[in-house]
């Protein structure tokens, strides 16, 4: 974009080793209906940094920031530090936001919300594994929406906040994985008395390219992040109510029998990850 134009919305996209998917994401962001929008891509130490730089160079509204390979939480903080707009949106490099996505989130914030988030949906409907993975993430977020449209959690695939909120409530860069860092951020945001508003029209499609083994590893990683989050917030001994898990399985089976079974498998993988992280936390440093 023209460097003399002050953007009204900045979109931060952390990326690592997925230049092909990043190109699709940036194409979707170039189609956003907001004119004064900038895209800040944070390359978190990709092996082929030149490939990422070439993709960013092909997107007129995008610019590149180099991350230190410390994980997506630290990468998002680096993106926020480089962003120039009063509203900062976040999405992931394997996501395609619809054209009105950024405008919808910014409009919700303009009505008084400190942060806003929209629905993330599976962008690979023919993949049972992707459907199961998205069912888990979607239920974790949308089960927290109250009748007034406030949320307690939203994934960073589809999130926005005022820039001063980003400064006051940064992501915890000590989270090394893409797991739990978004739950931690939302918990601290809501715990500070700020509002996170659900914005149904701000849709993002999530294109997860997962094999069954990759799905298992992802869910184990989520379990590790869940343990770290719960340990840090003092909720290890407070499991979710049974109704949460019943709703989760129902959401999975709505995507098909095989997806429902995989959602059940995901709970086993999550438990394995929590055990692994608990054991790691007990090791002497």
UniProtKB/TrEMBL annotation:
Domain Glycosyltransferase 2-like: 10-125
Enzyme Commission no: 2.4.-.-
UniProt-recorded Gene Ontology molecular function terms: glycosyltransferase activity
Matches recorded under CDD domains: Glyco_tranf_GTA_type (cd00761)
Matching InterPro entries: Glyco_trans_2-like (IPR001173), Glycosyltransf_2 (IPR050834), Nucleotide-diphossugar_trans (IPR029044)
Keywords: Glycosyltransferase, Transferase
UniProt-listed PANTHER family: GLYCOSYLTRANSFERASE, SLR2126 PROTEIN
Record-linked Pfam families: Glycos_transf_2
Species the sequence originates in: Pseudonocardia charpentierae
Name under which the protein is recorded: Glycosyltransferase
Enzyme class, spelled out: transferase
UniProt feature coiled coil, ranges: none
